[in-house]
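>> received
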Amino acid sequence: MSDLTIAPHEHGVLRLFALDMRAEEAKFLREPGAVDQILGVDGLDPQQIDIFPVSDLEDLGLYGYLNEGCGVSVEQLDRGALDAIEGWVMVVRSAAFGGHAATLHPDAKARLIGLYTEETTNWTGGVIRAESAKPFSAPQTPPDTDKPRRVGSAVLVLMILLVIGGVLWLIL
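>> returned
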């Protein structure tokens, strides 16, 4: 699979593009549909695309942005190459494609720098051996009696009858 081919249901992949264009052109890419045109695909989710000048990252830099901000492992990153990038960049996340397959046909002004994968959470675990984790290990309590408790209802009925009796006594 090429770096410019997006598999259906791809997840956790970031594509970093250097934008060889004036600042006005790069800012225009933030408009709806503009990134679709420059990458040669339709229907991208603009919420999953970041476009910014590297200078905005100040001391963090692209290395820190990708590692700390996007969860890309240090093993995938080349600090020297990332520190050498200047101007505007575009980060396109897999989620921008909405789970659909696509083939990118980027304009010459959008140069692919790298493809990075986000670290994922390892949800596997060992077998739980605690006694309390076994099925039906909780103490079994007998159910309460099925007889309804009518004490509250009886008191309420008695109070209503007293009020009605008091009203009738006053009327008569």
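>> Residues 5-117 form one domain.
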